Amino acid sequence: MQVVLDTNVLVSGVFWHGPASRILELWANDKIEVVVSPEILMEYQRLLAEMERDKPAGLANAWTVFIAQHATVIHPTVHPRLCRDPHDDKFLHCALSAGVRTVISGDKDLLSLGRVADVALLTPAAFLHRYTHI
């Protein structure tokens, strides 16, 4: 199953335990495939490096390497304005362009949309509840 992860899910999963870390475990165990765009990758790298300042050294670099090796990179072909926060549109553009049906996010602006075309917007907990068979 392919998904797009909002940056807040990645960062939460890397640095704290909870539903977001369970999603990263699914990814690490090849139970889900994470699809990203170059713009999402840059945001991942920037925020991981910023967050690491208060956390164990090397964790951000380890995850940056993992992402480079295990994420599927696409170049979005659609760019409509969809979200009230235009910075969040990149996750929807990625999902819509790649035919991914799930964006996992903790962002209220994205989650308020509920669904965009065939793309469901789910919290980490809702994703895990819906797909407990993974």
Describe the structure.
- By secondary structure, the protein is α/β, with parallel strands linked by helices.
- It has helices at 7-15, 19-28, 38-52, 59-70, 89-98, 108-111, 124-130; strands spanning 2-5, 33-36, 72-73, 102-104, 115-116, 119-122.
- The longest helix has 15 residues, at 38-52.
- It has seven helices and six strands; from the N terminus they run βααβααβαβαββα.
- 50% of the residues lie in helices and 14% in strands.
- The N and C termini lie close together (9 Å).
- It has a single domain (2-130), classed as Rossmann fold (3-Layer(aba) Sandwich).
- It has a six-stranded mixed β-sheet.
- The model has no long low-confidence stretch (mean pLDDT 92).
Which class of secondary structure composition applies to the elements? Answer: alpha/beta
Strand content: 5-15%
Mean pLDDT: 92
Task: Kindly state the number of beta strands.
Answer: 6
Say which CATH homologous superfamily is assigned.
Answer: 5'-nuclease
The secondary-structure element order is EHHEHHEHEHEEH
- Specify the CATH class: Alpha Beta
Q: How helix-rich are the residues, as a percent range? A: 40-55%
CA distance, first residue to last residue: 9 Å
CATH architecture classification name? 3-Layer(aba) Sandwich
Task: Kindly give the count of domains.
Answer: 1
Query: What is the strand arrangement across the widest sheet?
Result: 3-2-1-4-6-5
Give the assembly state of these chains.
single chain
